[in-house]
Write a structure and sequence with these properties.
This protein has 7 helices and 5 strands. The protein is α/β, with parallel strands linked by helices and about 170 residues long. A 5-stranded parallel beta sheet has the order 2-1-3-4-5, with helices on both faces.
Length: about 170
């Protein structure tokens, strides 16, 4: 008997007018049913996270991949930057598509980068959920985004680990 048949059998017993007998078979069916619903819930609660950050800053990219991308992927989330995929379409079209399709956007604002600010503006324009992050050394963000909550972190192993905990806490509240 496969899981689907087992689940159907469980529901037939549960909703029949006959007195409910809780035997080992019923407990097994209940267990199989819970596994199906748990798996479905976990699949539905994995997020697509689009990352806005400058290209070419090797240290920033390395630390981001190690302390944010890899741990979130281990939890089953899909993390992507626009340069992760090579397509024959316009990069701007790809960026806008990623922004629209993302469940969450992480915007790395440590480096003043006009492309990052443009993409962030497009995300704000459609009221997309954005987690802004920035190293503490970056003193002042541009006026238009200064009022948006930003996770500040230290450029150290401990700082990145704390950043991950805060990003994860934000994601888990969704």
């Amino acid at each position: 008997m496969d899981i689907e048949d087992s689940t159907i059998g469980y529901f037939e017993k549960l909703f029949s007018k006959e007195p409910l007998t809780i035997d080992q078979e019923f407990v097994d069916q209940l267990y199989q049913c819970s596994k199906i619903f748990t798996k479905k819930y976990e699949e539905e609660n994995k997020l697509y996270i689009f990352v806005i950050m400058p290209f070419g800053d090797d240290e920033l990219t390395k630390n981001f991949e190690r302390y944010i991308k890899e741990p979130l992927e281990e939890e089953g989330h899909s993390i992507e930057r626009v340069d992760d995929s090579i397509r024959a379409t316009s990069i701007i079209r790809d960026i806008i598509e990623h922004i629209r399709n993302a469940d969450i956007i992480i915007a790395e604002l440590t480096v003043d980068n006009m492309n990052v600010y443009y993409e962030l503006g497009r995300a704000h324009e459609i009221e997309q959920m954005v987690v802004q992050i920035c190293q503490q050394e970056q003193e002042l963000l541009p006026f238009d985004i200064r009022g948006v909550r930003t996770i500040r972190y230290k450029n150290s192993k401990e700082g990145y680990e704390e950043l991950f905990r805060k990003v994860r806490r934000f994601i888990n509240k969704i």
